[in-house]
Every structure is written in structure tokens, then in C-alpha cells.
């Protein structure tokens, strides 16, 4: 019989970001108190699962999200650069709906090609690294389950690739809320289904205006 393996991609919890900047890969951005509650909620949600392998982005917010999950399963997560946030030239700046960024001529060159995108890491590159990381996790958890804590844009990009959607998109339409789980089920080496769940849905804050670029 074909072996079934499950790989969960979890987006980290809410981050303490009082200035509202696009933090991207900038270090020293940590979970808020609410973000830690979200992480605890997901740990409770997956506690009965057959998880044998854990992977985290090296960024602080991802590792902090992983902490209660690692305790739940008694596992030490691998840190994997391949599941890190996407590189973005707007890091450290405010860039959102209604803040006037699109009217600033200084941003126009960076926004010249939304298909690539011109402001950051190419979508195809994100797909390659995420696909490789997921395959490694699938092999290490063969016949069981793995959980990877990553970030919104990488998770949505690889899901779009798996579901044969175009990679360039409106970030406001991503289905990848804070502390959500995007789940790939494999039979052998092939993905046979994609699931989505929001275990911390009741903890989600009132949605802020979505960003035009980047993720979280």
C-alpha cells in the first residue's frame, strides 16, 4: 500500500509591531502576548496528531510560535533557512493600503513588475525552496506527520503552486491567517489533498489593512 504522510505548514502568531513596519527578515521581532496565546492554541489543536518531526524558520517569531508545539510532542525542531520569510526591499518601512506609498515616485521602480515581483524574492525561487523543505520534512516524517512554522507569503506561494494558481496575486486575498495551518497530505511522493484550518480564529485581531507587498 502507498504510504501516507502529512505535512502541516503553520503561519506564526501575531507579532509585537507597534510602529507597523514591514519587518520581513529583520531580527528581533517577537510574538505579542496575543501571538503566544495563538501558539498555545495551535499546540492544543495538534496535540493528538501523529507529529514526529518539527521544522521552524530561524526568525524569532517562528521559533517562539514553535515552542509550545515542541513541548507538546517532546521534539526538538530543526531550523531551516528554506522556510524563512521572503526577502523584501521594503523591509523596515511602512507600506500598506491608504498610507500614500503608491503615490510616492520613489516606490514606483520597485513596483514595476508585480509578476516577478520586482520588490523582492522571485515567486519561483520561493516555490523551489519551500518545495525542497517540504520534501525533506516528508521524508523525515514518512508514514507520520511533520509540522513546519513559516510565514504567510512562502506558505501561500507554495500552496498556489501546488493548486496550479498563478503566483502573482493580491495579498489581501491570501487564505493564510495568523497561526493558521495549511496541510498537505501525501500518498507516496505525491500531494493528494490540501487542507486549511484556523485553530486560533477566535483570537484573531480586527484585520488591519492588508499589505500590497511582502508577508509576515
TrEMBL record:
GO molecular function: phosphatase activity
Pfam families: His_Phos_1
InterPro entries: His_Pase_superF_clade-1 (IPR013078), His_PPase_superfam (IPR029033), PGM_Phosphatase (IPR050275)
Gene Ontology cellular-component terms listed: cytoplasm
PANTHER family: BROAD-SPECIFICITY PHOSPHATASE YOR283W-RELATED, PHOSPHOGLYCERATE MUTASE
Protein name stated in the entry: Phosphoglycerate mutase
